[in-house]
Design goal:
single chain; 743 residues; alpha+beta; Jelly Rolls; membrane; OCA2 melanosomal transmembrane protein; transmembrane helix; transmembrane; transport
Length: 743
């Protein structure tokens, strides 16, 4: 840059010597060109002007335009230097700030040790209860009580006929007065339970009693731990951490994987400060390895599958089915993705569909990002239609208490299927409305690119002319008129091109023949092997959902299928396959699982559920069911857009069960559960990290060079989430409030 600066400065000194000759020639040229404008059109006059002034253009091209470029560079040099210096300063501040933040969180996490939990084994029976007094409270703000035992999974708030255990926690100011304040009274019939109890520097008494049909002894283990922050403070800390993570992702300050890792570190440091530091073994247990195994196994299968040329073949077939119409093809892809995700896991659907869509868009010269976003949105919508399509639905149908209340597989699927069909019926036209002005094509024709470049050059030339004289002013006017003429021509060409890509391709049959010659099956033997293994894996996915005798999770099925295909394909260069695995996506999910579990330990999800229940209780009884459906849907949708819908659903089910069994509320449980299912499943479309399928699709697209940002997904996904949740809410209101389908 210094060399260019001094070179330009020396060249500028020569400008004064040739200025008189250039100005004389320029005046003659302008005078002649202005006279031509009165008689002839711009095109003819410009051609003649260029012919007559060829010598002048040759001279001016070296001196006038070059010197103007140099002077413009020298004028803008301080601005560019300041901007680059500002960017470097901001980058330095970002790196320094994040590094300091990481160091502080690491110091906090290492400073506060794991105090451990005071635990003891005990035995309770109908004839004998267990009582203990806790006096060493100190300056603790919260008592964390955990009860574990070999009991039935479930939670209720009232006695059951088969037996239950009551845990009563009370506080008293001193042993002599025994003025007792009931703090918690719960009926337990589950394996593990954690209950927070507020500490007021008083003696806390815990009484555990069993009510069983037979006189048997129940072994239990009870642990208690003192925390240094109350519920409100922990929720505030968790909210700040969540907002910070979203800020890093939305503004793309760092990669989303690093943002999730920083958020996990901050949440672990917060747990250590309040006195609930988890051990490394416990943090590792928070990671959902079944999901990671499913992703890893399917990524291996897809990586080998791509070697066969099958994705190119599917792309050509999709183009043939759409008969050359872009929107027909997009609708077909979205509909197939929605149908498959209703029976497969939506993550598996996107793992299979994303490579096909990217190859199809490359063949048809389209922008894959908008098509992929549309596909993943409809994948999340379609997954909500059945009990096995989305993890929240699986959690709901698997709950024992809900099954006892009649929430079976067939009834749940039938009810959700009707509502999701209505959502799909409205979502397709709304998607077309959202994409009305979107640029779906990826690359423009060469003539349009050249025309844009020509307009840019003419504009720069006009801007470089300093209108110090009448002749220079006339030349600048002529150049600007040339620019206007070219811009008008560009608009006509763009309109023609957009009409061509939006209407049916007249030569689509010829294009099909050319595409079929270029994109064929590369290895038919490997394709047969891949189709056999993948078909068996998908069949096992279906079988696992409907046959309880198969003791293989989805992760195990995917891993076993990957091993089988690696053996059959006889892969020697193993590193090429591993390079195609989305390691950043896997690490993001691992960090996200830790982050969400840490936020759950900070009582953020539980706080959301409790506040939802309080809002429902505040509504008058005659309008309570309507308000409950609306509140549960929208709170679930918004929460699932921000946090993982799996822990949120698992937390909200007991809250809604207790709410429905509360005699003061008297609400049927089914409308609340269906509202939770629709909100949790459809809410994943709100943000990029709202659903696992979104992250998987973004990771694969980024590996292929078509990554889309948080805001690009948000501009399309959030309006779709609002519309789909509105349709689902209207369906539930009609079904349960107007028609009374509550049994």
């Amino acid at each position: 840059s210094d060399f260019r600066y001094y070179l330009l400065k020396s060249l500028l000194k020569k400008k004064k010597k040739t200025k008189k000759m250039f100005s004389t020639l320029q005046c003659r040229t302008i005078h002649h060109s202005v006279s031509l404008m009165d008689d002839e059109s711009w095109d003819s006059s410009s051609v003649e002007w260029e012919q007559r002034c060829l010598l002048g253009n040759e001279i001016v091209s070296f001196s006038t335009s070059a010197s103007s470029e140099k002077s413009e560079f020298l004028d803008s040099f301080p601005v560019k230097f300041n901007l680059s210096k500002l960017r470097s300063c901001l980058k330095c501040l970002k790196v320094t700030g994040l590094f300091i933040f990481g160091v502080v969180c690491s110091i906090l996490f290492s400073t506060y040790p794991d105090h451990g939990k005071s635990w003891q084994m005990l035995a309770v029976s109908p004839l004998e209860s267990y009582s203990v007094n806790l006096t060493e409270i100190g300056d603790s703000a919260l008592l964390k009580l955990e009860l574990a035992g070999s009991l039935i999974a479930g939670v209720v708030d009232r006695p059951q006929a088969e037996g239950y255990i009551v845990v009563e926690v009370t506080q008293s100011e001193d042993p002599s007065s025994r003025r007792r304040h009931p703090q918690q009274q719960c009926f337990f019939s589950f394996t593990n339970c954690t209950k927070p109890v507020s500490c007021c520097r008083e003696t806390i008494s815990i009484n555990i009693q069993a009510f069983l049909q037979k006189n048997q002894v129940i072994p239990l283990s009870m642990t208690h731990q003192y925390l240094h922050a109350d519920i409100e403070t922990q929720v505030m800390i968790a909210s700040v951490i969540l907002v910070g993570v979203y800020g890093l992702i939305i503004f793309e300050i760092v990669h989303r994987t690093l943002a999730a890792m920083l958020g996990s570190l901050a949440a672990l440091a917060a747990l250590a400060v309040i006195g609930d530091r988890p051990s490394l073994v416990r943090v590792v247990e928070w990671i959902d390895y079944e999901t990671l195994a499913l992703l890893f196994g399917m990524m291996i299968l897809v990586a080998i599958f791509s070697e066969t040329g099958f994705f190119d073949y599917c792309a050509v077939k999709a183009y043939w089915l759409s008969r050359g119409r872009v929107w027909a093809m997009i609708i077909i892809l979205c509909l197939i993705a929605a149908i498959l995700s209703a029976f497969l896991d939506n993550v598996t659907t996107m793992l299979l569909f994303t490579p096909v869509t990217i190859r199809l868009c490359e063949v048809l010269n389209l922008d894959p990002r908008h098509v992929l976003i549309a596909e993943v949105i409809f994948t999340n919508i379609g997954g909500a239609a059945t009990a096995v399509g989305d993890p929240p639905n699986v959690i709901i149908v698997s709950n024992q208490e809900l099954r006892k209340m009649g929430m079976d597989f067939a009834g749940f699927t039938a009810h959700m299927f009707i509502g999701i069909c209505l959502v799909l019926f409205v979502s397709f036209p709304f998607l077309r409305l959202l994409y009305w002005n979107k640029k779906l094509y990826n690359k423009e024709p060469s003539e349009i690119v050249e025309l844009k470049h020509e307009i840019h050059v003419w504009k720069l030339t006009a801007q470089r002319i300093n209108p110090a004289s009448r002749e220079e002013t006339a030349v600048k006017c002529l150049l600007m008129q040339k620019v206007l003429t070219l811009e008008f021509l560009l608009k006509k060409k763009l309109k023609t091109f957009q009409r061509q890509i939006s209407q049916e391709d007249k030569n689509w049959e010829t294009n099909i023949q050319e595409l079929q010659k270029k994109h064929r099956i590369a290895d038919k033997i490997l394709l047969i092997k891949c189709l056999t293994v993948l078909g068996f894996v998908i069949f096992m996915f279906f079988l696992n959902s409907f046959v309880p005798g198969i003791h293989l999770d989805l992760g195990w099925i995917a891993i076993l299928g990957a091993i089988w295909l690696l053996v059959l394909a006889d892969i020697h260069d193993f590193e090429i396959i591993l390079h195609r695995v989305e390691w950043a996506t896997l690490l993001f999910f691992a960090a996200l699982f830790v982050l969400m579990e840490a936020l759950a330990h900070l009582h953020l999800i539980e706080y959301i559920g409790e506040q939802t229940a309080l809002l429902i209780k505040m509504v008058p009884e005659d309008q309570r069911l309507t308000a409950a459906i609306i509140l549960v849907i929208w709170i679930s949708a918004l929460a699932s857009s921000l946090i993982d819908n799996i822990p949120f659903t698992a937390t909200m089910i007991p809250v809604l069960l207790n709410l429905s069994q509360d005699p003061e509320v008297s609400l049927p449980v089914k409308p609340l559960i269906f509202s939770l299912a629709i909100g949790a499943c459809l809410g994943g479309n709100g943000t990029l990290i709202g659903a696992s399928a979104n992250v998987v699709c973004a990771g694969i697209a980024e590996q292929h060079g078509y990554g889309f940002s948080f805001m690009e997904f948000f501009r399309l996904g959030f309006p779709m989430m609002l519309v789909s949740c509105t349709i689902g809410m209207c369906y539930l209101l009609v079904a349960h409030v107007a028609l009374g389908w509550n049994s």
